[in-house]
Specification:
There is one protein chain. This protein is of the alpha/beta class and 242 residues long. It has 8 helices and 8 strands. It is globular, with a radius of gyration of 17 Å.
Length: 242
């Protein structure tokens, strides 16, 4: 399995925001979604990126092993577009006692990625919206596969951190946040809910790629708006970091 090849978008060797502890963060190339607020639209093309074997990637991980208090996180793009690569790398990590996290939007059916999902110690699930129409507006697809992934982790009693981007005028609405909070409080596998303020740090990449960026006039959430959103989830007794 170490000879399996993957397409790599980029690497961060000292990540502190994508799972517990300090982590080796590997961004894989390719994504079936086209999120309006994506800050890595250059990761969408599955034929782009640097081709590397699992063995090569794991050798690089080992170089930083002494600094990795957390482990390894696979992100993207959508890492589950390369399920065999994820499975092979996670298998190596597990054999060497390295904690693994999978940062995914759950955009692919479990039938094509179940083995990789099973090997992930932690799933960071980017839940775009509860309303399927909102999901289609934001990403081009509904949320069916994401909910199926969450249900599967619940049935497996395996941990999930849910992530949700607060986009003013789209997801940053009290009724939509209450709907999501009420939905998530029924899941015992959800150990953490991260509400991420919308930002436009990747807008320049859209311009470089010649793609229209439709959220130019959308403001970033204020500190007060983020605090009110967090309060809604805390009221539902969900674990929200301060």
């Amino acid at each position: 399995m170490s000879t399996i090849k993957g397409r790599i978008h980029s690497v961060e060797t000292f990540g502190a925001l994508d799972g517990p502890g300090v982590r080796y963060l590997l961004f894989l190339q390719g994504c079936p979604l086209q999120c309006l607020y994506c800050h890595n639209p250059d990761s969408w093309d599955p034929k782009d990126g640097q081709v590397r074997t699992v063995e090569e990637v794991f050798a690089d991980i080992q170089r930083y092993r002494s600094f990795l208090s957390g482990g390894v996180t696979l992100s993207g793009g959508e890492p589950l577009m390369q399920p065999e690569f994820c499975e092979a790398l996670f298998t190596l990590c597990r054999e060497h006692g390295i904690h693994t996290a999978l940062d995914t939007a759950g955009s692919l059916p479990l039938s094509v990625c179940k083995e990789a999902v099973d090997l992930a110690d932690l799933i960071l699930l980017d839940l775009k919206a509860m309303d399927p129409d909102d999901c289609k507006r934001l990403t081009g697809r509904d949320n069916h596969n994401a909910i199926s992934l969450l249900d599967y982790r619940e049935a497996s009693n395996m941990p999930v951190w849910v992530r949700h981007v607060l986009v003013p005028g789209i997801t940053l609405k009290e009724e939509k946040l209450r709907e999501m909070a009420n939905f998530l409080k029924g899941y015992t596998c959800v150990q953490r809910v991260e509400l991420l303020p919308f930002h436009k740090m990747g807008e320049y990449k859209w311009e470089q790629l010649g793609r229209p960026y439709t959220l130019t006039d959308t403001p970033q959430p204020t500190r007060e708006e983020v605090a009110r959103a967090k309060a809604i989830f805390r009221d539902a007794e969900l674990p929200i970091p301060s």
